[in-house]
Amino acid sequence: MNLVANPTFFKFFMMLLGSVVIIAVGALAFRYLKQMMLQDVDMSSRPAGRESSGFAFHTYQGVISRLKEQEQELKSLREAASSRASASESLSVAVLTNLGSGVVVFNPAGIVQQANPAAREILGYASPTGLHTRDLMKGVHAVRTETGQTAVEVSSFLRAITDAPQHNQTTRFEVDYRTPGGVEKVLAITVSPIRSSVGAFLGSTCLITDRTQISSLARQMRVRENLASLGEMSAGIAHEFKNSLATISGYAQMLKGEPDETVSEFATRIQGTTENLTSVVTDFLNFARPQQLKREPIELRPVLEDCARETKVTLEFQNFPDRLVVNGDRTALRQVFSNLLRNAAEAARNNTPVRVTVRASATDTSVELSLHDNGTGIPEEALKNIFIPFFTTKPQGTGLGLALVHRIVTEHGGSIRAGNDLEGAVFTLSLPLQKPAAEKPATANPK
């Protein structure tokens, strides 16, 4: 068939061929575009995966880095806190160690947890840790309020330490205390509860101050005031007494000449009694009248040995310097030592030789002398009044011997205190030291 000769058929054929070509070209184009799109998707998906993994890795590294930094900061803070705690603890230990007052810490059960060196020295315990309150304070034999005016039961004082949480306040006491070695002391004790920041009871603490010397000085001051008042009244009273006694003695002397033997005997007794009373009044005047001291350098040991021979007392010198010289009145100091040694002899136990141990120590300005006897000691209730005039524990005593000793020592600018040790009574005196005379500088003789 001739396609050209039939125009209609030719036109139809060409249209069909064109459609086939267009479809083929479209299919090829679609396939090409599909491949291109798949390649684009593949190419775009690969870089996106790598970037996501890299982001996660860098994020993890950042978190780890920050954690390490925070750990280092915490470590630094922990070290700083530990350093501050260590410094604070060292400071607390240093303060407690060097504190002049004693500090004792008790747990809630009343057991000693800690005691600083001052507390151990004051209380006389080398290691009080672990002791109960009643064992640590067993040397307390008298308790007063802070002012020293009102007496308090010892049991109440101990309860104030163990029952501190019930009080919730600081309580202060003054106590008379005897160390395990027998040394008498006056202590001021402040009891306070210890609580945590949330109010829990952790125990109690005692602040202890040794007031022995202060208390002794206060007693001496009271005695001096009493002596001053006594001296002012003594002259008038003694004058009236002596006049009355002289009159009585005169009448008794006259009655002795009566023929009635009974009257004569009574007159003799009256005269003897008036003479005894006159002697007491004279002793009182000697005590109360101001005495002019004749000071000179006096070596103590020979004076003590002379007084010991007179009173028949054996002396034992311990830690006594070879030449100990004080500045004082020889006669007055002989009275002091004779009275003290006579007291030791009168206090001796039955059939026991009287022995007095003498110890001494010297500073730049004074001498401290202690006399320890082996007698019965001084009753506790008498210690505070032992130097008061007319106070005596002896049936036949006048109460003026130790009062005179006290007056002479104080007039010398010294002090005296009485106490007890394990063997007997102890009298401790402080007297001014005789300073050696300054050597005059040598001068050259003129030629």
Instruction: Kindly estimate the percentage of residues that lie in beta strands according to DSSP.
Output: 15-25%
Assign a percent range to the helix content: 40-55%
Strand-and-helix sequence, N→C?
HEEHHEEHHEEEHHEHEEHEEHEE
Low-confidence stretches: 438-447
Query: Radius of gyration, Cα only, in angstroms?
Result: 52 Å
CATH fold type of the largest domain: Heat Shock Protein 90
Q: What's the name of the CATH homologous superfamily of the largest domain?
A: Histidine kinase-like ATPase, C-terminal domain
The geometry reads as: rod-shaped
Keywords: ATP-binding, Kinase, Membrane, Nucleotide-binding, Phosphoprotein, Transferase, Transmembrane, Transmembrane helix, Two-component regulatory system
Catalytic activity: ATP + protein L-histidine = ADP + protein N-phospho-L-histidine
EC number: 2.7.13.3
GO molecular function: ATP binding; phosphorelay sensor kinase activity
Write up what this structure looks like:
With 447 residues, the chain is an alpha+beta fold. It folds into three domains: 102-210, PAS domain (Beta-Lactamase); 216-288, Helix Hairpins; 295-432, Heat Shock Protein 90. Helices cover 51% and strands 21% of the residues. The chain has helices at residues 7-98, 117-123, 133-136, 154-162, 164-167, 212-255, 261-288, 300-311, 330-346, 401-411, and strands spanning 102-106, 112-115, 140-145, 151-152, 171-178, 184-195, 201-210, 295-299, 314-318, 325-329, 355-362, 366-373, 415-420, 425-432. The strands form three sheets. Strands 2-1-7-6-5-3-4 form a seven-stranded antiparallel beta sheet. A five-stranded mixed beta sheet has the order 9-11-12-14-13. The radius of gyration is 52 Å and the shape is rod-shaped. 21% of the residues are buried. This is histidine kinase.
